[in-house]
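Lab notes, practical 5.
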Amino acid sequence: MSLPSSPQPAPLDEDATTLIEAVKALVKSELAPITTEIDQQGRYPREFLSRLGELGGFSASVPAAQGGGGYGLPTQIAVTTEVGRECGSTAFLVWCQSSCARYLLQSPNSAVRERYISDVMTGRLLSETACQTQ
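Output from the prediction step:
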């Protein structure tokens, strides 16, 4: 008995592909040299994350009308995947940051959204995602 094949993701458009290629280059030049320090010494990759944000690596799924890339969730997943090919710990941080941008985008609190979303999307403000229990 064979397993059904997984559906293949739709191909990315040219602009999204350009973003992914830029992410690959950044991973190679700035993340790969510090991956061992991240995984074995707990180094926080602040500089890499900031540069990734400048490239649009946290805002790929945010609509262009809200200042994001407007590429959709598949592109955001592709960004995280490319980082994860080198460093799973850093890929988790990318997921946290891009999730924070999506949370802000969907927040009913417009004052908070307007105050933080741009800085979170561009990596000027690094964040996390968490659940608070009471």
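Observations recorded by the TA: Helices lie at 14-31, 35-41, 46-55, 73-86, 88-106, 110-122. The mean pLDDT is 89.
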